[in-house]
Design brief:
Elements (H helix, E strand, L loop, with lengths): L1 E2 L2 E6 L3 E8 L2 E19 L3 E18 L4 E6 L3 E5 L5 E17 L4 H8 L1 E2 L5 E5 L1 H17 L4 H19 L1 E2 L12 H13 L7 H8 L3 H12 L3 H19 L4 H7 L5 H12 L3 H9 L1
Antiparallel strand pairs: 1-2, 2-4, 3-4, 4-8, 5-6, 5-7, 5-8, 7-10, 9-11
Helix pairs in contact: 1-3, 2-3, 5-6, 8-9
Length: 291
């Protein structure tokens, strides 16, 4: 696919390609059976973090217009990075692998740069061991495979976490005065709470909550955490679980139906989140309530 400022063309095309987009990013994953030679170009207006989840290539050759060069084997667990606007040309020899990537809006990195007094001003890199970045990308893939969809609020929260990690690990330190701590005023927090309560039956996007507060998603995530002691994702999940508990208590609706009514992408997602918040499964909650 190519357009002005965007080109992501890898040939032959990988199999079982799945993609999921949200306000500030895109997750992609696919697999490739053994292929003697693969060639391609990546250039996007977003920062791209890539992971070889399994499999390998006998040789990976990378040439980036920011000056980065790499030649060597590609291996499972390797993380690569392509900064926004940088063109990365690659060639894979003897490859059979499963991969995933997260593309991130550069604006997500601004709050982390301010908070950490750093700046993500780096070129491309290839085949770096980065367990945290690998774990975040792998979790996206696992959730998409298990639930068939990704929660937009989860995607946006983890995007902020990944952006902060990249700035902390790879950013250049700047000698800046510490920023003052500030919190959301009560009326803004009340507006956000009312919005969440009114939209529990559907997707709730961090970007929409940020717009209510007049902030970018990244700055909103930080301000909300300072105000409430919770991330926006934890707050949304807590409200969904509380509403689900009320429905379990007041109705005979199936747990699968309740999961959909309070906005979870699947029954398994509902069960995991409910257990994380309450310590027990929804079915046990219902049994205890009616004992």
């Amino acid at each position: 696919m190519a357009s002005q400022g965007y080109e992501r063309r890898i040939e032959p095309v990988a199999k079982e390609w799945r993609s999921h987009a949200w306000n500030s990013g895109i997750f992609d994953t696919a697999r490739r059976d053994y292929t003697p030679c693969v060639e391609g170009i990546i250039r996007t207006p977003q920062h791209v973090v890539m992971l070889t989840m399994s499999g390998s290539a006998e040789r990976l050759e990378v040439h980036s217009d920011c000056g980065h060069r790499f030649t060597g084997p590609d291996k499972a667990g390797a993380v690569s990075f392509v900064p926004a606007g940088c063109e990365r040309r690659l060639s894979l020899i003897g490859v059979a692998s499963k991969w995933a990537s997260i593309s991130l809006d550069p604006a997500l990195f601004e709050p982390a740069e301010d908070e950490l007094h750093g700046r993500l001003d780096i070129g491309a890199f290839s085949n770096v061991e980065d367990p945290l970045a690998a774990a975040i990308i792998s979790e996206f893939a696992a959730l998409l495979a298990r639930d068939g969809a990704l929660d937009p609020a989860y995607c946006e929260a983890m995007s902020c976490a990944l952006a902060r990690h990249l700035v902390a690990r790879y950013g250049e330190k700047r000698n800046l005065p510490a920023l003052r701590s500030w919190k959301l005023p009560p009326w803004r927090l009340r507006r956000i709470t009312e919005y969440v309560e009114a939209h529990l039956d559907g997707a709730i996007r961090i970007a929409d909550l940020a717009a209510l507060a007049g902030l970018s998603p990244g700055y909103f995530h930080r301000a909300f955490r300072e105000t409430t002691g919770q991330t926006p994702l934890d707050f949304i999940n807590g409200r969904r679980v509380r509403r689900a508990g009320e429905l379990i208590r007041r109705t005979d609706a199936s747990l699968a139906q309740i999961a959909l009514e309070v906005g979870f992408v699947s029954p398994s997602h509902f069960t995991r989140t409910f257990r994380a918040c309450t310590g027990i499964n929804p079915s046990a909650w219902r049994r205890n309530d009616r004992a």
